[in-house]
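Run folding on both entries below.
>entry_1
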Amino acid sequence: MAKVKYRYNSRTLTYEKLKFTAGDYIKLGLKYMAIIVVVSVASIYIFNRYVQSPKEIELKRELTFVKSQLDYINSELDTLSLVATDLRRQDDEVYRSIFGASRYPEHLRKPGIGGADRYSNLNGYASSGDIIETRKRVSILQRQLVSQSRSFEEVYEMAENKTEMLMSIPAIQPVSNKDLTYIASGFGMRIHPIYKIPKMHTGMDFTAPVGTEIYATGDGVVREVEKEGGGYGYHVTINHGFGYETLYAHMSKILIKAGTKVKRGQVIGLVGNTGSSVGPHLHYEVKKDGNKVNPAYYFFNDLSPEQYDELLEKASTANQSFD
């Protein structure tokens, strides 16, 4: 039986009996439940948004630490990259220049770092992008330093062989100044004596009487001895090692054989007028790493600064060559 309750009626000024049915109780219960649900959801939302759990605080602290360390590592990588660049510059422009060596090959300085799947295991995290980029920078720098180390090993070997190399560089005139009439033609565009047209002259012409002694300009091994009727005429090619070769042409007599080891200053032949020549002279060439270069830049062992400046001035004068 439902419990009897009373309600005051202000119009009749009497108390009236109230009876609650089961439905009334259900409605009231649902009302209270709705209020509880709303309050609970609001409390959870506020707690999650504005109140962090100890675990969340620790995770946030960890993320902040990782980010700060990544920033620090990248800053250090910037510094190391600058150091590596400076080492490379010194290697190419100073150390290798001292020994007359060519630059370390570019493709060896910048080796590849593998395929696109190399860092696939690092994907799927909020910090994946930063981690992958940092790993790439480390890999690139590692490979650059390894290649630089190999380059320095080559420089070290060159330093160990410095004495041999210095004696091998063609560093004197092939004809002595006391026997030299004059330098007829230097390296560069010159008028050809036969065709009378501008043509690249790839060596230097030293005029001297027939029979004047010709000297090897550096230590080496005679690679070739030829006796042609035209062209260079009687000529000798010496391989000095370290990328250097010299050629001595239009000789009247050759005094050495192919395969012979020669020393700087050793007489290898006599000035002549053989081959395509219009007068007694020695045509002299220097090759470095297969390229013909100006021989005038290598006469530094037996000339004073004043004589060297005078030679460069004569060698640079545009005139007619002797071959």
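>entry_2
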Amino acid sequence: MTDKLHAWLCLKSAPGLRTRAALELLNRYPDPQEYVGQPGHPLYADASVDVKVRQHLSQATEHPKLPQIAKLCEHYGIELLCYGEPGYPLGLANIVAPPLILYYRGDLPKALSRICLAVVGTRKPSSYGREICSRLLAPVCRQNVTIISGLAAGIDTVAHLAALDNGGLTVAVLASGVETIYPAMNKDLAQRVCGQGALVS
């Protein structure tokens, strides 16, 4: 995985390469592993690609945080799902600025292969709100629907638990990296999510 990580981070850190330009480049040359550090690749004769970008990719310039990220991936069992790859979420691919790299722990492709329902809500729900959320989601989860939420306190937590307690799959989309669980009170929940879905960032 280190070669893949290096190639994608090299692309992501290319000087002046904004998201839209990166997506246009990937639509023509989908796999950075085929051309990063490969100066004979047709990309380097493509004048529509900025010369600084071509130089950066040709030299396989290492992302400054590559060793740190690679170490975290190895330690925590973090996988990559990159833009354009099979299983990359179609809905996410169609937003204005989709992330080039999704980092995840667990089985994200399996979780995303089902119908997905996003559930978000207040971090301070009433007991009634917790009960109703759980009751509404229980039969949905039993129909092989993946619940997607944010692992935050409150309704997010209730939504994940409803999936886990009813034999469903769930995906927690984190604001931090997948090696950092916040709030800390949800560390055990995060481990359960990894076993029945995925953490993703």
